[in-house]
Amino acid sequence: MKQKTTQWQVLETAEAVAIAACHEIMQSATQAIKKHGQFRIVLAGGSTPERVYRLMAQEGGDWNKWLFYLGDERCLPVADPERNSEMIRKNLLDHLPLSEQQIRFIPAEKGAEKAAQAYRKTIETALPFDLVILGMGEDGHTASLFPQHQHHHDEPAHAVHHAPKPPEDRVSLSQKSLSNTQHLLILVTGENKQQAVAQWQQGDTLPIATISSLTSIKTLLDKAAFGKERPL
């Protein structure tokens, strides 16, 4: 897949990024529902998306037409507070009028291999997604796709072992699946991301830089993440 051009938008604060992201998501939902009656969204873990989910929980929408998927998950017991799914439930899903059938998360409690196999079947009928949300770590990783890790290109979802941060076992959608989306929204905040952002813009092969989309890529950053010396 040819890499789409990324639209960069630098905002003053992390809160401004969250507000802009919430607007982008709700707008994408409206368009997708109008077009084909559903909105298939892939959610991300992390502190930056967490702010966004709190704002989304206050929005009105055709929530019964949303289908929620996960970009990655940590292999921990059900309801463990360190799971992405628990953060998302607490900040968003528990506040919305949803059925459990709309929430299609990764069964990571089964272990990385079994969970990845199960999730491949779950997303088969979801592709292409309408919107994928991603964050980025200090090392340029996204979802649970880490630098120096190698995975089979054609796998829709990967079992991840030896992650550089605990827990070592995880499940992640693949680069191919994450890129199979109409729209990609990347959220990056915090001064500790400056080096990775610079490397990304310089063309370094970071995991975040390998993700594309079918239609558009938008990256929202705060000034702390982007830095003050480099032009867009």
Order of helices and strands: EHEHEEHEHEEEHEHEH
Helical amount among residues, as a percent range? 25-40%
* Shape descriptor: globular
Overall structural class, as computed from helix and strand content, comes to: alpha/beta
Strand content: 15-25%
**In terms of per-residue confidence, which ranges show pLDDT below 50 for 5 or more consecutive residues?**
none
CATH architecture: 3-Layer(aba) Sandwich
What's the level 1 CATH class? Alpha Beta
Integer count of domains: 1
Q: List the total number of helices.
A: 7
Number of beta strands: 10
What Rg, in angstroms, do the CA atoms define?
16 Å
How is this structure best described in words?
With 232 residues, this protein is α/β, with parallel strands linked by helices. The chain has a single domain, classed as 3-Layer(aba) Sandwich (Rossmann fold), CATH 3.40.50. It is 31% helix and 22% strand. It has seven helices and ten strands. It has helices at 14-36, 47-56, 84-91, 112-124, 175-179, 194-201, 223-226, and strands at residues 6-11, 39-43, 66-70, 72-74, 103-104, 129-134, 157-160, 170-173, 181-188, 216-222. A seven-stranded parallel β-sheet has the order 1-10-9-6-2-3-5. The protein has a three-stranded antiparallel β-sheet with strand order 4-8-7. α1 (14-36) crosses α2 (47-56). The longest helix has 23 residues, at 14-36. The protein is globular and about 45 Å long. The mean pLDDT is 94.
